[in-house]
Write a structure and sequence with these properties.
It comes from Pachyramphus minor. The chain has 3 helices and 14 strands. With about 250 residues, it is mainly β. The relative contact order is 0.18.
């Protein structure tokens, strides 16, 4: 590989229920992005794409539909949020990762707190490429269901992104009758849906070790990674509860 390295790593990861799943980690240092993909315990395929260049992260969930309840084979959702520094290791470091024991089942060393995000803005798919070129590929199945939040939009607008791709969604304050989907008895009424996902294992930090040369001079070098697990819950408006059948009182 030249200066721009592309690499894929497959890691066996233990899910909260005890099942083992395989997670795929891909890094492209030329495009300065990384992506992780895993199948959750409920069968949903969850992908996280981190676009370091644009400071954007994209979560995509492909959720198996309930055919007997009139849903299609699967439902796709995309949640786009701001990528902060030090959330995940850089793409060039990810591209260099190797594992000595591919059969090892891994669990994250650190559990980062659950993040609850109110996704109050819709993103127009056809214009989304200028926010991140990855939206076009990652969210192709979720054209009508790409969500972000107002505070992230403000950050991107200050960077010069075109505001016409964003549309503010109805809020509970605008529509007092708007309920959470899990409390809404009518399947065809609009409501606020909740979807939770978890990235079970990802390299969140680089570890540095110190070495001393013959003259006693101390220097530090990268000597590994720290792994994290993090869960997210996204709340967002849907025009009908039929689009949110998983969010029901159990």
């Amino acid at each position: 590989p030249g200066p721009a390295a592309r690499a894929e790593l497959r890691v066996r990861v233990r899910l909260p229920g005890g099942q083992v799943t395989e997670e795929s980690l891909q890094a492209d240092s030329g495009a300065d992005c990384v992506s992780l993909e895993l199948r959750a315990a409920d069968g949903a395929l969850v992908t996280l794409t981190a676009d370091f260049r644009q400071e954007v992260k994209i979560f995509r969930a492909l959720i198996l539909g309930e055919l007997e309840r009139g849903q299609s084979q699967f439902q796709a959702l995309c949640f786009v949020t701001r990528l902060h520094r030090n959330e995940i290791i850089p793409s060039e470091s990810m591209a260099k990762l190797r594992q000595k024991n591919p059969r090892t089942v891994r669990q994250a060393e650190e559990v980062r707190g659950l993040e609850h995000l109110s996704m109050d803005v819709a993103v127009n798919f056809s214009k989304g490429a200028q926010l991140s070129s990855h939206i076009h590929n990652v969210c192709a199945e979720a054209k009508e269901a790409i969500y972000t939040r107002e505070e992230d939009v403000k950050f991107w607008l200050e960077k010069g992104v075109d505001g016409s791709m964003f549309e503010v969604l109805p809020q509970g304050s605008d529509l007092p009758e708007l309920q959470r989907c899990r409390l809404c008895p009518d399947r065809w009424k609009p409501c606020i849906c909740s979807y939770s996902l978890s990235i079970e294992w990802y390299p969140c930090m680089l570890k540095y070790c110190k070495s001393r040369d013959a003259g006693g001079k101390v220097s530090s070098y990268k000597c590994g990674i720290r792994s994290c697990q993090k869960g997210y819950t996204f709340d967002y408006y849907v025009p009908q509860k039929q689009l949110c059948l998983w969010d029901e009182e159990t």
